[in-house]
Design goal:
Aspartate Aminotransferase, domain 1, 12 helices, globular
Length: about 400
């Protein structure tokens, strides 16, 4: 026997682990309606043609070797231009590092930031890697409440109560995965002010920034330009290239407070070599080319959001808040005959062959008793899934 390291025991990724159960059914020839995948390309969305052509051209033009560890200067400059144009922010290219998706950005950051015993304040519920990677480094993720009755807005008072001497950073995910919440600028500013009072770094995950159905998303750094804020963003969602794995980290470092942390981040980035070279070049066309697909995507998602919200609230035993951004909805299991939300999700899968993700996989405290569904599928597919779910709930709750 060759036992794995103890640190691997804490790794659990709910979003993909439920797929293992679905595959067992698929091996038997059963078709599963997948409502779990936060990947637009798995449904009826497609990468803009000019970006595909740019990727091919980059390979033909010879960009097939290693890229600089921080990313190509030209791409970092275009990202800085976007931040100036969209958010009124002035980033130097040396404040930007290209990563293999946002997940690598947070992996590098947590490795650079956390010591054993440190604490990371994360929204409850949250994107699971914030919890599992924090555990991996021997640190503790501390979930702060987000209020379902207030459209899943963060509970600022709860954040204040949970700050301790061990708190190293506060995470904001806006728009949020898994709830689809769009945080108000007022709430975000209050969180940043609290972090400033306690000399704590703010990490703002903004990968869904332009996927908003009402109003707009305000970059956290734009609301507090004088405070140290690290922003994670990327191209996977807004530009429909999740498999290309290009993200980036932005360091808003007005007074040099982040110098040591940024240097540590970049040392790790150099040690892992670089992000994908040809995909980086293709991202230039994403930023410089037509943006029409974003408006079209949001329009389509808004219609699907409205349908999912209405349909789920019509199902006995379920209720849900209307998401304002991203492409998720996070229903509550109001009436339950199941031990927990994971048992609910697996029962749904095995009985009606529809796959969701259990809410406790996003937070055992604030996610329990819920499940996450994507709103990405065409309405016809969602209609079939929710019709099955409706009949299923009636059967289970009538026993």
């Amino acid at each position: 026997m060759f036992p794995p390291s103890n640190r691997t025991k804490s790794i659990s990724y709910a979003i993909r682990e439920v797929v293992v159960y679905a595959r067992q059914l698929e091996k038997k020839g059963i078709k599963v309606i997948k409502m779990n995948i936060g990947d637009p390309i798995a449904y009826d969305f497609d990468t803009p043609q000019h970006m595909k052509e740019a990727l091919y051209k980059a390979a033909l033009d010879g960009y097939n070797g290693y890229a600089p560890s921080e990313g190509y200067e030209e791409l970092r400059q275009e990202i800085a231009n976007r931040e100036k144009r969209r958010n009124g922010m002035d980033y130097d290219i040396d404040d930007i590092c290209i990563t293999t998706g946002v997940t690598e950005a947070l992996q590098i950051f947590l490795a650079a930031c956390l010591n054993e015993g440190d604490e990371l304040l994360v929204p409850g519920p949250t994107y699971p890697p914030y919890n599992l990677i924090t555990h991996f480094h021997g640190a503790k993720p501390v979930p702060y409440a987000t209020l379902e009755e207030e459209q899943w807005q963060p509970d600022v008072d709860d954040i204040r109560k949970k700050i301790s001497e061990k708190t190293k950073a506060i995470v904001i995910i806006n728009p949020n995965n898994p709830t689809g919440a769009l945080y108000s600028p007022k709430v975000v500013k209050e969180i940043v002010d609290i972090a400033g009072e306690h000399n704590i770094v703010v990490v703002s995950d903004e990968i869904y920034d332009d996927i908003v159905f009402e109003g707009r998303q305000y970059a956290t750094a734009s609301l507090a330009k004088d405070l140290p804020i690290i922003t994670f963003n990327g191209f996977s969602k807004v530009y429909l290239v999740p498999g290309w794995r290009i993200g980036y980290a932005l360091f808003n470092n007005p007074n040099g407070e982040l110098d040591e942390l940024k240097n540590a981040f970049l040392r790790i980035a150099r040690a892992r070599l670089c992000a994908n070279s040809v995909c980086q070049l293709a991202m230039l066309s994403a930023l410089r080319g037509k943006q029409d697909h974003i408006k079209e995507m949001v329009k389509k998602l808004r219609e699907r959001r409205d349908y999912a919200y209405k349909r789920i609230n019509e199902i006995e035993g379920l209720s849900t808040v209307k998401p304002a951004g991203a492409f998720y909805i996070f229903p509550k299991i109001e009436k339950s005959v199941w031990k927990n939300d994971k048992e609910f999700v697996l029962d749904v899968l095995n009985e009606i062959h529809v796959l969701f993700v259990h809410g406790s996989g996003f937070c055992p405290i604030y996610g329990k008793g819920h499940f996450r569904s994507v709103i990405l599928p065409p309405i016809e597919q969602m209609e079939e899934a929710f019709n099955r779910l409706d009949a299923f709930m009636k059967r289970r709750l009538s026993k």
